[in-house]
């Protein structure tokens, strides 16, 4: 791929957080990047101009995504656009719990994956996440049909978007797990998958 390629939508997952290390469900809790997370974002920002020209950058307003987006934007001298619809799955009362804690609450993990209408206490369902993330992505794509668009967001929201566009079935989202600061590209026009979970910047 050359830097002149256009019409691409590049989803980027945020840098590593303390919640990622502790295997905690942080959802919309505004968790901080680790030192490694900051280093990942620095490498990502330095790498991007070698790979793809960014024309516009959107981000979730949560700091882990915002800081990651700013690392890319500074390389291209772009202003980051915040969109709350790109925020992570709201897990309500379960935010701050470890993954292992939820195993004791029955078939919670199965329900989260396979039941699009299942909702955590005071949280939101997979269907609600799909509606807001797809609305945001469709709107962004319509505004920038010939641009290279970067969307910096979160593991589950990006996975739900990919499962929707590539399969029409959001319950397939677990197959799209991604490394921190990994990026995944789809064609804006066709929504065809072009690359997945790229972390070349972390291997340099």
TrEMBL record:
Gene3D superfamilies: Phosphoglycerate mutase-like (3.40.50.1240). One of its GO terms (molecular function) is fructose-2,6-bisphosphate 2-phosphatase activity. Substrate binds at residues 13-20, 64. InterPro entries: His_Pase_superF_clade-1 (IPR013078), His_PPase_superfam (IPR029033), Phosphoglycerate_Mutase (IPR051695). GO terms for biological process: negative regulation of glycolytic process; regulation of pentose-phosphate shunt. Keywords: Hydrolase. The active site is at 14 (tele-phosphohistidine intermediate), 88 (proton donor/acceptor). It comes from the Bacteria. GO terms for cellular component: cytosol. This is Broad specificity phosphatase PhoE.
């Amino acid at each position: 791929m050359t830097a002149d390629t256009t019409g691409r939508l590049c989803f980027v997952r945020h840098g590593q957080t303390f919640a990622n290390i502790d295997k905690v469900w942080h959802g919309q809790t505004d968790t901080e990047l680790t030192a490694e997370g900051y280093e990942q974002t620095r490498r990502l920002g330095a790498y991007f101009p070698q790979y793809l020209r960014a024309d516009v950058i959107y981000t979730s307003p949560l700091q882990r995504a915002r800081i990651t987006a700013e690392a890319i934007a500074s390389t291209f001298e772009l202003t980051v656009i915040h969109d709350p619809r790109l925020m992570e799955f709201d897990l309500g009362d379960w935010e701050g719990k470890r993954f292992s804690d939820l195993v004791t609450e029955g078939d919670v993990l199965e329900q989260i994956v396979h039941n699009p209408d299942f909702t955590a206490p005071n949280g939101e369902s997979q269907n609600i996440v799909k509606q807001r993330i797809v609305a945001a992505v469709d709107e962004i794509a319509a505004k920038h049909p010939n641009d290279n668009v970067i969307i910096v967001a979160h593991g589950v929201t990006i996975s739900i978007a990919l499962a929707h566009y590539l399969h029409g079935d959001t319950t397939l989202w677990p197959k799209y797990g991604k490394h921190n600061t990994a990026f995944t590209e789809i064609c804006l026009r066709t929504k065809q998958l072009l690359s997945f979970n790229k972390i070349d910047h972390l291997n340099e």
